Amino acid sequence: MSNLLLLLLCLSSFLPSHPQVQAATLPSDIYALKALKASIKPNSISPWSCLGSWNFSFDPCSLPRRTYFICGISCSPDSTRVTSLTLDPVGYSGTLTPLLSQLTQLTQLDLSDNSFYGPIPSSLSSLSKLETLSLRSNSFSGNIPPSLTKLASLVSLDISSNALTGPLPVTLSSLSSLTTMDLSFNKLTGSLPRLPPNLVELALKANSLSGSLSQSLFEGITQLEVVELGANRFTGAVQAWFFLIPSLQQVDLANNSFTRIEIQKSGNVKNSQLVAVDLGFNRIKGYLPVNLASFPQMASLSLRYNRFRGPIPWEFYKKASDQSLRRLFLDGNFLNGKPPAGFFSGGSGSSVAGSFGDNCLESCPASSQLCSSSQKPTSVCRQAYGGSTSP
Asked: Is position 236 within any domain?
């Protein structure tokens, strides 16, 4: 072996076997990140925040990142594309630049708990790989851009606690991958459109939505577990099909203007997963829906402050005595007669939490927590029953 070859072999032993090659972040991604930082008021960017560490004299995706771009972004394995943008909740204030649409490899965009304002850019619909979009707890205003329903990969959408107005996009059902949607605490109006078919959690509480709950809007939905539509302006009847939605577990329809519950005992009930129902603060008339006690998993039921009449069904006590029903709120109605004595006898039925107060009940012992609120004056009850306290 020649001396030259021997020297080369010796030198090669000191070289790394897998040299690290640092690729540069795509210029359009850098441009989008610069535009985002430029759109935010400088006085809302603290030096110790994620954006405070963004120094564009350095490549955003280069490794190791110990001083610059220390948080806020994640990059692809080859360090060329930004795949996640998650800002820290420190009060960043400004509008959201439409140029974020250039981050076409984003799978997650989370700007929650800051002070962004103005419209949500319709150009976000270009983020075809986006799976999570969270703009929760900001001050975004204007309509929800209909173009967002083009985000076919979107799994989770949370734009709750903003100042959004106008109707829900009519093409909402085209979000075929969406499992979680929270648009609560906005100022949305209009009726429900047809819903995405794979929803698991639906939250639209504290808006000004109106209209009725039509079965066609929930057609084909089989995985829905949570429905939160409280504090809106929905009217009409809550029909039997609604309670029999497969997989349904929790329902909040409180603080609306529903007037009827239409539910019949059904063989399908035995397979129901329904655990909690809140229909309080509506305008529902008639007798208490006794068939709700036939749902095997029912643990919490609130029908408070409606216009129910008649006695408390024995079936409700039976459900409580089986230690299945743990919370029962019936206060603020026009219920009469004597409540089942087992609620107050010290047995398992007496362990249920709730309230029977502000009704027209007889013999509701003041010593019981369930009767801690006094009953309505006799004159009010007689007027409600046409001069008698009997139904």
From this structure: yes
Tell me which residue has tokens 């610069």. Answer: 34
Say how far apart CA 136 and CA 180 lie, in whole Å.
Answer: 13
Whose tokens are 């609620």? That residue is: 343
**CB-CB contact of 55 with 73 (8 Å):** no
AA identity, residue 28: S
Tokens of 59: 């490549």
How do beta strands 115-118 and 353-355 pair? unpaired
| Number of domains forming the structure of the chain | 1
Cα–Cα distance, 232 to 204 (Å, whole number) = 8
Distance of CA 190 to the CA centre of its chain: 19
Domain at 303, CATH number: 3.80.10.10
Residue at 38 is within a domain: no
pLDDT tens, N- to C-terminus, the chain (391 residues): 444 444 333 433 333 433 343 558 999 999 999 999 999 999 999 999 999 999 999 999 988 877 899 999 999 999 999 999 999 999 999 999 999 999 999 999 999 999 999 999 999 999 999 999 999 999 999 999 999 999 999 999 999 999 999 999 999 999 999 999 999 999 999 999 999 999 999 999 999 999 999 999 999 999 999 999 999 999 999 999 999 999 999 999 999 999 999 987 766 788 899 999 999 999 999 999 999 999 999 999 999 999 999 999 999 999 998 889 999 999 999 999 999 998 988 766 678 999 999 999 998 998 899 998 899 999 999 999 887 655 5
Q: Does a structural domain hold residue 364?
A: no
* Residue 157 structural domain: 75-353
Rg (CA), the chain: 29
Residue 24 in domain: no
pTM over 0.85: yes
- Reported as type and span, the H/E element at residue 86 is strand 82-86
Angle value at C-alpha 97, between 59 and 79, nearest 5 degrees: 25
3-class SS letters over 226-275: EEECCCCEEEEEEEHHHHCCCCCCEEECCCCEEEEEECCCCHHHHHCCCC
What letter does residue 353 receive in the DSSP assignment?
E
Q: How far apart are CA 374 and CA 354, in angstroms?
A: 14
Whether residue 86 contacts residue 110, with contact meaning beta carbons closer than 8 Å, is answered with yes
DSSP state letter for 155 = -
